[in-house]
Amino acid sequence: MLLIKNGCVHDGRGQVLPQCDVLVENGLVKAVGPGLSAEGAEVFDAAGKQVLPGFVSTMTIQGATGPGWHDDDLGEFSDPVTPELSVVYAFDQDNMNFQEQWLYGVTSVGVVPKPGNVLGGQMAVFKTCGRSPYEMLVRERAAMAASVSAATKKPYAPRNAAPMTRMGAVSLLVAALKKAERYTECSDYDPKCEALQPVLRGEMPLFVNALNRAQMDAAEMALRDFPNVRLVLTGAYGLDETRESVRSGRCAALIGDVTEAGTQLNANVDYAGIGRLAQAGGLVGLCCGGDSFAGGKESLLWNAIQWHKNGVPAEQVLRMITSAPAEILGVGCAVGSIAPGLHADLSVWSANPIETYTARLEAVFLQGENLLTRKEVRKSCW
Amino acid sequence: MLVIQNAKVYTMAGQVLEKGDIAIESGRFAAVGESLPVPAGAQVIDAAGLTAIPGIVDAHSHIGGFGSTMDDSDLNEMTRNATPEVESVYSIDVEQPGFKRVLSAGITTSAIAPGSGNVIGGLVCAVKSHGKSIGDMCIKNPIALKMALGGNPKGVYGPRNQMPMTRMGVAQVIIDTLRRGREYMKKQQEAAGDPAKMPPYDAGLENVCRALRREIPIKVHCEQFDMLTTIRIAREFGLEFTLDHAWGASDFYDEIAGAEGLRGVIFGPCGVQLLPGECGKVDIECLIELDRRGVCCSIMTDGPIMNPDLIVTQAGEAVRAGLPPERAVAMLTINPARIIGLEERIGSIEPGKDADVVLFSGMPTVDTAAQAMVTIVNGEIAWQRS
Question: What is the ipTM metric for this complex?
Answer without folding.
Answer: 0.91
